[in-house]
Structures are given as structure tokens and as C-alpha cells.
């Protein structure tokens, strides 16, 4: 099982920098990098909510489940 994080896709669609996104969400750029690179073990719902609010998207736009058994 793998969860693919698609923050970079949504940022590119909006031409938004990681720094600008981090500031608006209330994260450090380093923590955004951890999320973008798929190294995060968990995401708080409050953080996910803030990311969706800033990017005007749904959680499914940011996270994708990929079954590694296929």
C-alpha cells in the first residue's frame, strides 16, 4: 500500500511556490518538503484542511492510494 502525495501538482497548477504555500498553510518549507516527498508518516486533519483551503481543492486532489500489489 502506498499513498502518493500530489501537492507539487496542485502547486504547479496554481503557480504557487513552496514558500508561499508553507506560509499560507502555517508550515515550515522543510515540513512541506517532507509531505511532498512522501516521507511523512501522518498528516493532521487540521493541516489537510488548511492545505485544501489554500489550494481550493479536495483531499483527494492531494492524496492518492496506489495498491503496490498490482
TrEMBL record:
<protein>
    <submittedName>
        <fullName>Helix-turn-helix transcriptional regulator</fullName>
    </submittedName>
</protein>
<dbReference type="Pfam" id="PF13443">
    <property type="entry name" value="HTH_26"/>
</dbReference>
<dbReference type="InterPro" id="IPR001387">
    <property type="entry name" value="Cro/C1-type_HTH"/>
</dbReference>
<dbReference type="InterPro" id="IPR010982">
    <property type="entry name" value="Lambda_DNA-bd_dom_sf"/>
</dbReference>
<dbReference type="GO" id="GO:0003677">
    <property type="term" value="F:DNA binding"/>
</dbReference>
<feature type="domain" description="HTH cro/C1-type">
    <location>
        <begin position="13"/>
        <end position="62"/>
    </location>
</feature>
Amino acid at each position: 500500500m502506498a499513498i502518493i502525495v500530489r501537492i507539487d501538482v496542485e502547486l504547479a497548477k496554481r503557480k504557487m511556490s513552496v514558500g508561499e504555500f508553507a506560509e499560507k498553510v502555517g508550515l515550515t518549507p522543510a515540513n512541506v518538503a517532507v509531505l511532498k516527498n512522501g516521507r511523512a508518516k501522518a498528516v493532521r486533519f487540521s493541516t489537510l484542511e488548511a492545505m485544501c483551503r489554500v489550494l481550493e481543492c479536495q483531499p483527494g486532489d492531494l492524496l492518492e492510494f496506489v495498491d503496490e500489489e498490482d
